[in-house]
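Before a colleague's protein record goes any further, I have to sign it off. I want your independent view on whether this chain really folds as the tokens say. The record follows directly below this note.
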Amino acid sequence: MPYLVTFVTFLCVLCLLNLMLTVGVIRRLRKHSEALASRSADGRQAILTEGSVAPPYTTVATDGSAVSSELITEPVLVGFFSPGCDACHEAMPGFLDMAAKFPREQVLAVVVDQKGGLAGPQREQLEPVARVVVEDMDGPVTSALRAQAFPVFALVGGGGRILASGLRLGQVVALARA
């Protein structure tokens, strides 16, 4: 009988040790997932990370209003899209819903039209809820925020400080609320 009690005790201790190691591995995997979520498919940073400060930029939106990092006083939701990007089309309804919760002045949609003349449909969808900027990869907003993947999102605060950023809109909004 003492052997049985010793064996069962040993198994309990072994199970507890296994449980602790499993919890540690799960925590580590979550950290890695968050880090990978902010990178594009080729491993480059998709956009400036949280806490970074974007260099100053100035441009003009499609409605003729000035868009500048110096004009940001409240957090601004920024979304980068590209015509012909399937992931951008999938993310568009979620972005439109989220943008509708912000005042129009606090939402900036950047359509990066690398081939020229293809931004029309996305521009029309975005203009009711956001100020829209159409530019190429070397455009002022794209360059300042270092957008390298599409779609990619950021919440930018005063002074160009990135409050949250990532490839998933839900993740950016969740980070901003945390």
Notes: The mean pLDDT is 86. The chain has two domains: 1-37, 58-177.
